[in-house]
């Protein structure tokens, strides 16, 4: 008899990818969410997965297993029905631990770069015949799926440090039985879950300490906190960075078509090319090169796979190439936005106009110091109405609104403003941008059609050029 799995909150990138992977394994899959939007809704339809908006226990039925996303508040009708009817349930990290994690468990973790590195590692291993099981929280620019249940003893997981579920505050990566860790870079994030810098770093210290002596830690030592934390490793440690590392990257050149740089390890030096944008991607790619090399793959084959990886949606994704360029990036913290602005400054001579929406943790008063000077390379900053947070009514949370965020940025930036109406944001961008300028939408949410509206408005404005 075919087993039935139901996803409460299926429209997230990770949950939808996991749902599709289960369907490919022969499960009957269904899912619900507050709303459905492309590209996730398109993917689910293409795979014939039954989904519906809202929370309806009668549509959910009695699945063999329910996967409960963080979108499900304590009063969610389907969550209540799962508990009332004793339906077996798991958080999605628990499902990954049970169905995806293998004996050789590679986890990419860190404040920055974990989605790109986990995706690229999955791509490199798959291209070289390893057939890994994997999951990463992004959508590739080609048809490479974001989750897969492979046939080998290898798995690659994006190791998110945010909480597992409403009933489990442990970081997601705590479930993945890590044997090989790629640790990218660290700076305090998610202040709603980790109220102090020390509490944030402690989560990674525990992860490092739990890797067995037979395992491997590949550490990005450009990051001071990473350099400090790897002292707690009992596993073999290999480092990468711009200097004083086992794998050193240098001579980075960047153009609108991508990156080219050199990786040196001992006496060997290899030239690497990639279509990815951003100097920071040279660091990410070097980490992937190091870990893949340490697992026994030949460097030449790794380099070939890296060159063919097109990247991910919402990672400096170019949405419009024209007199005014439009980019979309998931940079939802001031530090991540700063890195994006720095990359665009190297590529475009005109103004950088940013539309910024922070994630949950960066709406907290504790995160305010991180905004200082983070937006200096943007010529103008617009903060839209912030996407409403899905919060448990029993949780009292203090959070800034869009006006507050614009005010905080404005303390160190002369051209920051709050525009609460979405059509007014599009109109302001159309009016403000000139040929040679670049507009970048930076944030973890989808901007409610503002990106598409801006692309249409600019394409129409410059249609005769």
Automatic annotation (TrEMBL):
Name of protein: UDP-N-acetylmuramate
A UniProt-annotated Pfam family: Mur_ligase_C
Domain Mur ligase central, chain residue ranges per copy: 109-292
Higher taxonomy: Bacteria, Candidatus Magasanikiibacteriota
Keywords: ATP-binding, Cell cycle, Cell division, Cell shape, Cell wall biogenesis/degradation, Ligase, Nucleotide-binding, Peptidoglycan synthesis
Entries under PANTHER family matching the protein: UDP-N-ACETYLMURAMATE--L-ALANINE LIGASE-RELATED, UDP-N-ACETYLMURAMATE--L-ALANYL-GAMMA-D-GLUTAMYL-MESO-2,6-DIAMINOHEPTANDIOATE LIGASE
UniProt entry tagged with the keyword Cell division: yes
Record domain Mur ligase N-terminal catalytic: where: 4-99
Location of the Mur ligase C-terminal domain: 314-444
SUPFAM superfamilies: MurCD N-terminal domain (SSF51984), MurD-like peptide ligases, catalytic domain (SSF53623), MurD-like peptide ligases, peptide-binding domain (SSF53244)
Species this chain originates from: Candidatus Magasanikbacteria bacterium GW2011_GWA2_56_11
Molecular functions per Gene Ontology: acid-amino acid ligase activity; ATP binding
ATP-binding in keyword set: yes
InterPro entries: Mur-like_cat_sf (IPR036565), Mur_ligase_C (IPR004101), Mur_ligase_C_dom_sf (IPR036615), Mur_ligase_cen (IPR013221), Mur_ligase_N (IPR000713), MurCDEF_pg_biosynth (IPR050061)
GO biological process per UniProt: cell division; cell wall organization; peptidoglycan biosynthetic process; regulation of cell shape
């Amino acid at each position: 008899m075919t087993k039935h799995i139901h996803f409460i909150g299926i429209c997230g990138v990770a949950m939808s990818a996991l749902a599709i992977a289960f369907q490919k394994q022969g499960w009957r899959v269904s899912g619900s969410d507050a709303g459905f939007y492309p590209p996730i809704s398109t993917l689910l339809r293409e795979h014939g997965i039954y989904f519906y908006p809202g929370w309806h226990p009668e549509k959910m039925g009695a699945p063999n297993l329910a996967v409960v996303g963080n979108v499900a508040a304590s009063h969610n009708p389907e969550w209540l029905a799962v508990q009332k009817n004793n339906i077996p349930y798991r958080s999605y990290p628990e499902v990954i631990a049970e169905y995806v994690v293998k004996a050789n468990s590679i986890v990419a973790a860190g404040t920055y770069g974990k989605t790109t590195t986990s995706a690229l590692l999955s791509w490199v291993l798959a291209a070289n015949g390893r057939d890994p099981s994997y999951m990463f929280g992004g959508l590739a620019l080609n048809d490479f799926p974001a989750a897969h249940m492979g046939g080998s003893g290898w798995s690659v997981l994006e190791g998110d440090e945010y909480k597992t579920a409403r009933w489990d505050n442990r970081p997601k990566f705590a479930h993945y039985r890590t044997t090989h860790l790629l640790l990218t870079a660290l700076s305090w994030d998610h202040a709603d879950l980790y109220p102090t810098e020390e509490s944030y770093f402690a989560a990674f210290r525990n992860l490092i300490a739990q890797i067995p002596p037979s395992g491997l830690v590949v550490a990005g030592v450009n990051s001071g906190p990473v350099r400090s934390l790897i002292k707690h490793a009992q596993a073999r440690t290999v480092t990468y960075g711009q200097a004083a590392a086992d794998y050193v990257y240098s001579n980075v050149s960047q153009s609108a078509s991508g990156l080219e740089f050199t990786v040196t390890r001992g006496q060997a030096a290899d030239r690497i090319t990639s279509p990815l944008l951003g100097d920071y991607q040279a660091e990410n790619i070097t980490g992937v090169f190091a870990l893949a090399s340490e697992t026994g793959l030949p460097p030449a084959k790794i380099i070939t796979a890296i060159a063919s990886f097109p990247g991910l949606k919402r990672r400096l994704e170019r949405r419009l190439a024209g007199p005014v360029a439009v980019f979309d990036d998931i940079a939802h913290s001031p530090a991540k936005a700063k890195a994006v602005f720095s990359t665009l400054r190297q590529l475009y001579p005109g103004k950088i106009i940013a539309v910024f929406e922070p994630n949950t943790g960066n709406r907290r008063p504790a995160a305010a110091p991180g905004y200082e000077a983070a937006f200096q390379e943007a010529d103008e900053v617009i903060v839209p109405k912030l996407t409403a947070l899905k919060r448990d009514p029993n949780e009292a949370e203090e959070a800034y609104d869009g006006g507050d965020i614009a005010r905080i940025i404005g303390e160190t930036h002369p051209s920051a403003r709050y525009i609460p109406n979405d059509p007014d944001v599009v109109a302001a961008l159309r009016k403000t941008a000139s040929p040679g300028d670049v507009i970048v939408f930076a944030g973890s949410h989808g901007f409610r059609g503002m990106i598409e509206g801006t692309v249409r408005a600019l394409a129409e404005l410059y249609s005769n050029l």
